[in-house]
Amino acid sequence: MKKKLKRLAPNQITELSQCEIFVFGSNLEGQHMGGAARYAYDHFGAEWGNGVGPQGRCYAIPTMHGSLSDIKPYVDDFIEYARQHPMNRFLLTRIGCGIAGFKDKDMAPLFAEAMKLPNVSFPKEWVSRLLYYVDPKERMKQLAPPVINMEVLQRLCEEHLYTIGAGNMLRVKRIYWICMALSFALCCISNLLIAWQHDLCLSAFSTDGEVLDYGSRRMMVVLTTQWIACSYEISGAALRGMGRSMLPTLITIVGTCLLRIFWIFVVARHWHGFQTLMGIYPVSWMITGCMMLTALYLTFRKMETQEAA
């Protein structure tokens, strides 16, 4: 059933990604007085006086001027427009089922042809009705997830580059901070629990007193400072998710590989001791984290500037 969910538009559409289009019902005069039309005018760039077609980040379909047969040509125009713009994802509202007074069972069939388009998402009230107008074989594709192999997955990635929420910087930042907070919290809690029971953990590997002593000292350093590593792990994942895979790779190589080699051959040569050797963990995590956070900040700034332009 997961495949079916991809055809559902959100119940309440309050934000759009760079590729998403808000599809709403309007009137020919373009007087967006209420309902989805008013929301489109207030938030998504719908134009006053324009009641038909693409405008801002929306698409208007007039429904207030006559019968279903009068509305259908405008629906057909929308379907053709969606077919010609495969890189956009069109989020349909319950067009015509509000102020216009039509019922879902009457409006949904007008959009049956759009079920063939993978970039059109429908209100949940319409999907079950629309499936009756789809060929049985196609209906199974809509309801049952296909067997995916790498070849099919690669083709789908090339064909459908749009993603729900793609390019929405507010959403990206919100997810980033949620992940960062969860990583810090879980890392601190789990590491402190292990540090509290470090003798028990070490006893599973050795009973030698000297080994236990070195192991305990190492665990105290690593477990109490490893939370710092979350700063570059999560930031690096965010950069990769935004298509900047090379930058976090280079930062990680410099911070966690080259810096540690430098530490061993330069720092440890002048300051001997086990604690000096262990000090490379928090030092390398802090330096790598600072570099990764700086890279992420600059990337955010660049993307926001491009979005504003």
Concise account of the structure shown:
The chain is α/β, with parallel strands linked by helices.
Structure description:
- The protein has 309 residues and is α/β, with parallel strands linked by helices.
- 59% of the residues lie in helices and 7% in strands.
- The protein has a five-stranded mixed beta sheet, with helices on both faces.
- β4, α4 (104-107) and β5 (120-121) form a beta-alpha-beta unit.
- α8 (169-196) runs antiparallel to α10 and α8 (169-196) runs antiparallel to α11 (230-241).
- The protein starts with a helix and ends with a helix.
Topology overview:
Blueprint: H1 2-5, E1 20-26, H2 35-43, E2 53-55, E3 58-62, H3 68-84, E4 89-92, H4 104-107, E5 120-121, H5 124-130, H6 136-143, H7 150-159, H8 169-196, H9 198-203, H10 209-225, H11 230-241, H12 246-270, H13 274-278, H14 280-308
Parallel strand pairs: 1-3, 1-4, 4-5
Antiparallel strand pairs: 2-3
Helix pairs in contact: 8-10, 8-11, 11-12, 11-14, 12-14
